[in-house]
Amino acid sequence: MDKPLILNEDAFAEVFIPSRVLHRDEQIGELKRRLSPALENRSVENIFLTGTSGTGKTAIAKHILENHFKSIAAYVNCWKHRTTYEVLTEILLSLQVPVHGRESTGELAKKLERVIQTRKIIVCLDEVDRLNDFDLLYLLARNGCGLILISTRCHTISSLSPRIRSRLALTEVEFPTYDDEEIYNIVKDRVEFAMRPGTLKNELLRMASVAAQGDARTALEIIRKAGKKAEFRGLDEIAMNELQAAISETSKFSTMQPLNKLNSHQKILYQILERHRKMPSGLLYDEYRTAAQNPVVDRAYRNYMRRMVKHGLIKSEGKGRWKSYEIIA
Ligand SMILES: Nc1ncnc2c1ncn2[C@@H]1O[C@H](COP(=O)(O)OP(=O)(O)O)[C@@H](O)[C@H]1O
Ligand SMILES: [Mg+2]
Fold first, then answer.
1. What mean pLDDT value characterizes the chain?
2. Ligand 1 binding site (Cβ under 6 Å of any ligand atom)
3. Which one, out of 38, 112, 208, 306, has a CA that is 20 to 30 A from the CA of 263?
């Protein structure tokens, strides 16, 4: 069979914005309602979207900004753009304010302030927990930007301290995990859009939906991989073999596994390290103690760190007081 099964591979890419989003009417309605005053140049509340991975936070935020607030909104992924300088640059460019690249961070902030004085804007910071410096949030909020912050639930508590949260007065909009039926409908819609008719039998689609455990990204990734495998073998549809291979190869069940096994303390430690990349053990422990609700004692902390080293998530250097930890990307 020489005809491709995947007719539009872009539709499976991370940056794809689906034109039809399903099962999120409630969240879409709430976001539209809360953000619409900005269109009349009035202030809006700051919003915090939370939910586990693959619950549609990014897709829905982009969909709404694109369709209703395009001319007054900026979207920045803080995993790609971590510094205040980069984020400000991205925001200004989205708002079509020229930036030549030789400005200081302070000058960029001034530029943005001037824009905001003339009109209300909405800034969406996706994966906000990755920001190097949370003071940026103050800067934006102080100037009256409407903020949409996005983060997975496990990042929510530790990365944004209660102090920052109360200052920003965030309204939380929750994205619950999808059930199997919802995942099925989302994937079915995407398959119809992106694959040759007849590529995937309904019962296999059901299997993939269940395997994804409520994560739409994982479900779509399974289908894309299975499609690639079937194409490679010259088949004219995806068979059980390809699907099963795709399921067992998909990241959630392989590379992500050590991360899923971390306890809540280790997750906080891991997130702090993600932000700093590398830091001395003492500083890491101090920062953990401010972030965790019931921090464990020093000895348990060292135990947790040792186990993360063993899992291959982080590495350590030096000994005793000079020990430091580094994230393995
Ligand atoms: N309700 C939905 N309707 C259509 N596609 C969706 C929906 N929710 C998620 N998706 C798709 O699933 C994938 C993961 O969603 P995403 O928004 O990136 O998740 P999150 O940001 O919550 O981790 C994307 O390809 C997205 O387009
Ligand atoms: Mg996302």
1. 90
2. 16, 18, 21-24, 51, 53-59, 186, 216-217, 220
3. 208
The reply to whether the predicted model has a pTM over 0.85 is no
For the segment 32-42, the average pLDDT, to the nearest whole number, is 95
pLDDT band at 135 (very low <50, low <70, confident <90, very high): confident
CA distance 62 to 323: 42
pLDDT in tens, 261-288: 788 899 899 989 988 889 999 999 999 9
- Which of 57, 217, 223 has most ligand 1 atoms within 8 Å of its beta carbon, as the pocket-test mutant? 217
Q: How far is the CA of 70 from the centre of ligand 2 (A)?
A: 19
How far does the centroid of ligand 2 lie from the alpha carbon of residue 199, in Å? Answer: 28
Burial of 28 (0-12, 13-18, 19+ CB in 10 A): middle
DSSP labels, 275-317: HHSEEEHHHHHHHHHHH-SSPPPHHHHHHHHHHHHHTTSEEEE
Question: Which domains can be identified in the chain, with CATH numbers?
Answer: 25-174 (3.40.50.300), 178-253 (1.10.8.60), 258-327 (1.10.10.10)
Ligand found nearest the CA of 24: 1
